[in-house]
Amino acid sequence: MDIFGIISSVFNVVAQANNQGALNWLVTKFNEGGFFMWPILASLVIGLAFSLERLYSLSRARVDTKKFIVEVKKALDQGGVEAAKKVCENTRGPVSSVFYAGLLRYNEGLDAAEKAIIAYGAVEMSFLERGMIWISTFITIAPMLGFTGTVQGMIEAFDAIKEAAQISPAIVASGISVALLTTLFGLVVAMILQIFYNYFVSRIDRLVGDMEQSSIELIDALYELKNK
C-alpha cells in the first residue's frame, strides 16, 4: 500500500469514528478485539494511575531553587544554622530536604554535613524515581500483549480456513480483525505511557541537577560560615 492509500485508510477510520461517535466506536472495536484487549486496557489504567501519582509528586517537588538558595544563605548570615533550618522546614521539595539533612549534621563537622547531603540526596532521588519502573513495564507489556493477540487472531483465521477448506475474505476477516485491533491498541497504550515516561525522566533529571548544584552551593556557604 502506498502512502496515499495509508492516508486514505486513516481518514476512513476517523470518518467512521465521527459518524458512529468516538466512544461508541472505541467500545465496538474493543469488543471485536477479543480477550487480549482486557489486559491491554488494564495496562493502560494501571500505567496511567502510576503516571498521575508521579505527576502529582513531581509537581509538589518543584520549587524556585535559586530563590530558595538565596533565602538559606541570607538566613545563615543573619541567624546561623538554626535560622537556615527553619527556612528548610517551611519549604517543600527534595532540595530543602537535602539541605535540612546537611544542616542537622553541621555541628558534627563539615565532612559529616557533606556526607549527609550526599546520602540524603540519593534517598531523595529514589523517591523521585519511585513508580517509574512500573510505567516502563507497562510500556513494554502493552505492545507484547497486542502482538500476542495478533498471533491469536492469525491462528483463528487459519483455523477458519481449515474448517471451510477454502480461502475467502469473509472467512478470515474476523481473525485478521482481532490481529490488527490488538496490535493497534497495544501500540497506542505504549505511546501514551511513553510520553508520560519521557516527561517524568526530563523532570527528574532537572530536579537532580538542581539538587547537585544547590548542594555544592550549600557546602560552600557552610565553609564560609565556619571560617567567619
Topology record:
Blueprint: H1 3-20, H2 22-32, H3 37-61, H4 65-89, H5 94-104, H6 110-128, H7 132-164, H8 169-226
Helix pairs in contact: 1-2, 3-7, 3-8, 4-5, 4-8, 5-6, 5-8, 6-8, 7-8
Compute the CA-based radius of gyration. Answer: 28 Å
> Mind describing the biggest β-sheet?
none
For the termini, the CA-CA separation is 77 Å
Helix fraction bin: over 70%
Count of helix runs: 8
What's the SSE pattern? HHHHHHHH
Strand count: 0
Percent strand: under 5%
Mean of residue pLDDT?
A: 81
Low-confidence parts lasting 5 or more residues at pLDDT below 50?
1-11
| Principal-axes shape call | rod-shaped
SSE class: mainly alpha
At a glance:
With 228 residues, the chain is mainly alpha-helical.
Task: Note down, in words, how this protein is organized.
Among the domains are: 32 residues; 67 residues. By secondary structure, the protein is mainly alpha-helical. Helices cover 88% and strands 0% of the residues. The protein contains eight helices and no strands.
